[in-house]
């Protein structure tokens, strides 16, 4: 019988599923276990941090909405650990989630760009998005402005400010902070979840960061990224960020090595042009009167470009007024790199769209912003694991030439469904074996109890599980 078992083993080993390869291979390539230990993730009761993290990373791929939902689903047998192990990790304020995300991003760059080549359009991108919540009891929950829904529209949730790096090919999330804006009424604030934390803990620092303004937080993240060795030529932001302090600080990083390209509001700010101090509207009217309008045929866009002195930051900048097809209003862009033509500026600034795609994909495919824990530490853990999973999938996509992350996700989702079916098939297979062996037993040919305890029976079951059920994801020697 041992010979037949070996033949079965060959069949099982040749039948691989992409979900195993993607998660296991990414964790091995990134040396994820080593990264966790390096940044200070320590083993808790029973299971290693890597085992628990693996299960947390798999939840979105299994279309599971929460830890509690996992243990009510048919996937509950994928791991021997209880849900308390997952909750302990997510709610632990000592866990250095920020350092882990930065280290994963650094490993991504090391794997995809070992020679540290800085692409011409490499850029840090800073933007925010709304993480909507439906309950008032979430820790640090507040009303946040929804600019998509309208000027007066606010909703309960957090503002997620994210810093990412576009390296010329891929977008990689580097850092983030969750922010509160307009507080709830006092009686509702009293209902919010509260937790006593060590003021020196990572969780206490992240909670305190929630009340810091986004411009200050964004600059801190940018400086932290540069300190960790990430490189780019530009910083890209929309019109909400470029205050004079923001522009000056960006230009001061690494002695002016980073240039800022941003959209600007046509507000009261003054620019010096031909000895005159003019605001944006006055400057546009002056340029129109001078007849300096140009046309970009490639983008079918009318534009003006002019170098002015921006006294508020103490240096000259280049301004671009443009009116896109079918739009009545003129848009204004600013670049501290005066060498860029209008078309070159627009091509670099268009890279900012990658963070919008990132937000869309992580929300629709990886369940960003769907954490229902009232604990603020769990919210930080949820966003971090989502961003790490995105980095793993982006790496696999880059190595295997998938056109979109959505296409890759569809493949993964299908494989997870097949795994779930396979687990049910094993139960049917076991029942079938019982019937067959029972028939043999009645004839006196085989003792069913002896066969079920035999090494051959155990070996066949292990082969089946190794091939279909994904338990190998949680073995210590394969998880990292």
Architecture blueprint of SSEs:
Layout: H1 2-14, H2 18-29, H3 32-39, H4 49-58, H5 67-70, H6 83-90, H7 97-112, E1 123-132, E2 142-145, E3 154-166, E4 171-179, H8 186-189, H9 202-209, H10 214-227, E5 234-237, H11 244-252, E6 259-264, E7 271-273, E8 276-278, H12 280-290, E9 294-296, E10 301-310, E11 315-323, E12 331-335, H13 342-349, H14 353-364, H15 376-400, H16 405-442, H17 448-452, H18 455-468
Parallel strand pairs: 1-5, 5-6
Antiparallel strand pairs: 1-3, 2-3, 3-4, 6-12, 7-8, 9-10, 10-11, 11-12
Question: What is the CATH topology descriptor of the largest domain?
Answer: Transposase Inhibitor Protein From Tn5, Chain A, domain 1
The CATH H-level superfamily of the largest domain is Transposase Inhibitor Protein From Tn5, Chain A, domain 1
Main sheet record? 10 strands, mixed
Which architecture of the largest domain would the CATH scheme give at its second level? Alpha-Beta Complex
Rg for CA atoms: 28 Å
Helicity range: 40-55%
Percentage beta strand: 15-25%
Task: Give the tags.
disordered C terminus, 18 helices, single chain, disordered N terminus, Transposase Inhibitor Protein From Tn5, Chain A, domain 1, 12 strands, ten-stranded mixed beta sheet, 480 residues, 2 domains, alpha+beta, 46% helix, two-stranded antiparallel sheet
Question: What would a concise description of this structure say?
Answer:
The chain has about 475 residues and is α+β, with helices and mostly antiparallel strands.
């Amino acid at each position: 019988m041992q010979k037949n078992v070996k033949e079965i083993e060959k069949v099982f080993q040749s039948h691989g599923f992409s979900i195993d390869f993607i998660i296991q291979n990414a964790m091995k390539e990134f040396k994820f276990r080593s990264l966790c230990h390096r940044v200070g993730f320590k083993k808790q009761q029973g299971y290693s941090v890597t085992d628990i993290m693996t299960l947390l990373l798999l939840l979105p791929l299994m279309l599971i909405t929460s830890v509690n939902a996992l243990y009510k689903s048919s996937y509950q047998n994928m791991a021997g650990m209880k849900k308390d192990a997952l909750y302990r990790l997510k709610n632990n304020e000592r866990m250095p989630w920020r350092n882990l995300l930065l280290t994963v991003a650094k490993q991504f760059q090391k794997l995809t760009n070992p020679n540290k080549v800085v692409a011409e359009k490499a850029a840090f991108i800073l933007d925010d998005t709304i993480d909507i919540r439906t309950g008032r009891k979430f820790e640090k929950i507040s009303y946040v402005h929804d600019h998509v829904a309208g000027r007066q529209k606010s909703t309960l949730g957090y503002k997620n400010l994210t810093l990412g790096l576009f390296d010329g090919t891929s977008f990689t999330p580097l850092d983030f902070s969750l922010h509160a804006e307009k507080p709830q009424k006092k009686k509702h604030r009293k209902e919010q979840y509260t937790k006593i934390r060590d003021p020196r803990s990572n969780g206490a620092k992240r909670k305190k960061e929630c009340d810091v303004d986004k411009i200050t937080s964004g600059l801190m993240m940018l400086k932290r990224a540069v300190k960790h060795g990430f490189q780019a030529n530009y910083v890209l932001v929309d019109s909400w960020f470029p205050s004079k302090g923001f522009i000056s600080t960006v230009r001061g990083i690494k002695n002016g090595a980073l240039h800022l390209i941003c959209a600007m509001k046509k507000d009261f700010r003054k620019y010096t042009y031909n000895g005159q101090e003019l605001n944006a509207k006055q400057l546009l009217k002056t340029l129109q009167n001078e007849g300096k309008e140009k046309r970009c045929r490639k983008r079918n866009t009318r534009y003006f470009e002019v170098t002015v002195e921006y006294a508020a930051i103490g240096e000259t900048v280049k301004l671009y007024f443009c009116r896109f097809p079918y739009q009545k209003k003129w848009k204004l862009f600013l670049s501290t790199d005066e060498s860029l033509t209008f078309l070159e500026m627009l091509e670099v600034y268009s890279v900012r769209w990658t963070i919008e795609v990132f937000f869309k994909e992580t929300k629709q495919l990886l369940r960003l912003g769907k954490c229902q824990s009232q604990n603020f530490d769990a919210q930080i853990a949820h966003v971090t694991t989502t961003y790490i999973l995105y980095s793993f999938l982006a790496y696999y996509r880059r190595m295997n030439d998938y056109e979109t992350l959505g296409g890759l996700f569809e493949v993964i989702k299908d494989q997870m469904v097949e795994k779930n079916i396979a687990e049910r098939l094993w139960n049917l297979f076991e029942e079938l074996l019982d019937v067959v062996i029972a028939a043999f037993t009645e004839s006196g040919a085989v003792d069913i109890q002896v066969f079920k305890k035999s090494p051959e029976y155990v070996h066949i079951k292990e082969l089946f599980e190794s091939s279909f059920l994904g338990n190998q994801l949680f073995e210590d020697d394969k998880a990292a």
